[in-house]
Every structure is written in C-alpha cells, then in structure tokens.
Q: What sequence folds into this?
DNA sequence: TTGACAAGTGGAGATGACCTCCATATTTTC
DNA sequence: GAAAATATGGAGGTCATCTCCACTTGTCAA
C-alpha cells in the first residue's frame, strides 16, 4: 500500500508544490471558487500534471489531510511521553480543538471534500485513530478512564466537532463536547 | 420566510412527488450515481420542472431533511410529555441512533449533500435544535443534568454520529457516544 | 560527457453534466 | 367558457472536467 515507487525528482517537486499550494488555498477557503484546471495554473503546473498526481479534488484533499494527521500524531506521542495518561488525553483533545479553530478554512474544506468518500477519510486517519486509541488505552490502564467505551466514540465526537465548523458558537460548543466526553469517560460504570 | 404562496394544484403534486422519490433514492444510496436530469425523468417530470422546484441537489436534500426533522421533533415532544426529563432526553438520543441506523443511506446522502452548505443544514435543523435544547433544559430544571454545558454540544455530538456513518463499528460507537454524552451531562461532583 | 531510454509535462480539445428558455399545456378566475 | 395566470418538459447552449499525445526533462550506463 505504501509501496510508492521512487518518484523522479521533478515529479516529486511538483507533487510537493501542489500539496503546499492546496493547503494554502484550502486554508483561505477559496478552493471551491476555483476551477480545478485553474488551481493547476495557480500552482504553476499544467492540468495534465495536476490530474496525474491527483485524479480528483478528493485525492488532493487526502494528501493534505495526511500531512495534518502526521503532525497531530507526533503531538499525541509527545504528550503521551511527557504527561500522565489522563492529562495527555485531555491535552490532546483540547489541543485538537485549538488546532481546528486556528485552521478553520482547512478543516471546513477537508470535511466538505471527504464527506462523500468518508472511507478515504477513515483510511487517512487510521494513524490518528491509533493515536487516540493509545491515549485512551493508557488512561484506562491508569484507572483514570472507564474501559467499557470504545475509543472510536471519541473519534466520532471529534468528527462531529470538525464537521460542525459553521455553528455560531462553534468554539464554546466544541469545548463543551470535549468536556462531556472527558467527564463521561471518567464516570465509572 | 415561510410565507409560501399557495402552489397550483399540479405544481404541489409534482413537488411532493419529487420529494417522495428523492427520499426513496436517497435511502437506497443511489443518488450520486444519477445525473440530476435523470432523476427528473425517474420521478416522471421534465428537467425544467425539477429545476424550478429545486434549483440544486442541495435544495432537494433540504426539503427531504425538513420532513425528517419534523418527524423527529414530534417524537421529542411526545417523549417530553410522557417521561421524566432525564429519561426523555436519553430515550430521544437513543432513538435518534436507531433512526439513523434504520436509514443509513438517507443519513449518508443528507450528510454529504449538506457538507458544504452546512448553513442550510443549520437552518433546516433549527427546529430539531430547539427540541434538543428543550429536552436538555427540562432535565436541567429537574436537577438531573449540569447547567454549564450548552445543548449545542449535544447537537455536535449527534452531528458526529450521523456524519461518521461509514465506520466499521458504527452502531456500537454511536451508542458509546450517547453514553459518554449522557454520563458527561450528569452533574460532576 | 554523451547518447538513449524512461519518466514526466502541459495544454488543446472532446466529453458530458448542468441549467436555461420558451412554445405549449393545465388551472384558476370571473 | 374565455382570458389570465401558472406550470410543464425537453431541446440545446454553456462550461468545468478530464484525456491524450507530441514534446521536454531527468536518469543511468558506458
């Protein structure tokens, strides 16, 4: 699956360039105002090149998403290594909200693009899911968190938070969801 | 906003017909394999008629969603009238999961179609939000639920549940989310 | 270096979905 | 029952998407 044949130097350069430009345009929230062909021109490549690297808008989104996930996973590992399990989990979830808040356009664009191909999202976020699962499992081992609730439920809640980015009081409600989840996790059976 | 001028009899009939057919196709999950023009033919009307009633796929989704919301709100009122507040809230949320589970294709299609125009979703689900807010408020009055968490957070969690309908263990995780929310809502000591 | 082959590029143009438009048909009104 | 108002349907224009291939660029062995 990750058996990517080594790309030729210029191809790799173009690919990176496209992803970088995509992240930029996503974050600005301008992606849907743009013809896909025009995005190619904006990135300085021909349409053929764009389509060879990313056959669809969704494929491009997936690549960007991959980068996001990798960064978040690094953060999860760092927290897990430096804090008690329960605090690490809480810090991670709170930080996730901060992150989404700071990149509203990106979050919104990714959510929109992956809405129909949610399978792709699940695919891309497998690593993130693993990170969350690890954080929860560690907290369970510490006895800080109940063991009868699947970590997948936390993923779902996060999903809801990032998918609902247009609600008027998004930030406050997102924080409340995290509060509910954390308090709900703490409560013994 | 709801100041709809009375539609001519045949127009009303066609409109209802389109919504009914849409619900059917949504639920079967076949909507995205269909050209919008072909959907018109499938429903037995011309493309012009389809476009006059519903200028976009999203507009059609919104109409279907409206019906769903109305049914759910009725259920909320019924529960609220017949059960203690906390139980009504729990029953409503659990029932919501049942409902989504029973209409997977519909939920998925609606979620996809409204992903970009989430504003429209918020618009259409105002009534649903009000119902949830009422249920929560009643439970707060009973002292069964904390008062420092906004009902919007519950909406967000529900949003996550319906948006994540492709997860392998969806049903179990959805139930867990509800558990977390309900337990989280009970006053922390 | 150089030649030769592999790999990648870009953009013109085919394709096909979306939506508009209006001559015709149906309801409603008086 | 005739005129006015309202709604219909589908032919065809428009425009974003994606394919295709003649050409350029990179790689590698000698």
A:
């Amino acid at each position: 699956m990750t058996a990517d044949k080594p790309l030729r130097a210029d191809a790799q350069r173009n690919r990176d360039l496209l992803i970088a430009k995509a992240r930029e345009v996503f974050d600005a929230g301008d992606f849907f105002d743009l013809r896909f062909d025009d995005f190619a021109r904006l990135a300085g490549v021909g349409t053929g090149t764009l389509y060879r690297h990313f056959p669809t808008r969704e494929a491009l989104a997936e690549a960007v998403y991959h980068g996001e996930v990798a960064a978040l996973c690094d953060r999860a590992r760092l927290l897990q290594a430096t804090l008690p399990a329960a605090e690490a989990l809480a810090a991670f979830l709170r930080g996730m909200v901060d992150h989404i808040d700071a990149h509203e356009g990106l979050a919104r664009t990714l959510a929109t693009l992956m809405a129909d191909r949610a399978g792709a999202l699940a695919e891309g976020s497998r690593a993130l899911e693993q990170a969350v699962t690890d954080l929860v499992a560690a907290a369970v081992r510490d006895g800080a968190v109940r063991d009868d609730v699947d970590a997948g439920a936390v993923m779902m809640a996060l999903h809801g938070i990032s998918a609902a980015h247009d609600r008027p009081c998004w930030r406050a409600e997102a924080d409340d969801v995290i509060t509910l989840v954390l308090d709900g996790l703490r409560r013994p059976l």
The mean pLDDT of chain A is 92. The longest helix of chain A spans residues 57-82. Residues 1-55 of chain A form a domain with the Arc Repressor Mutant, subunit A fold (CATH 1.10.10).
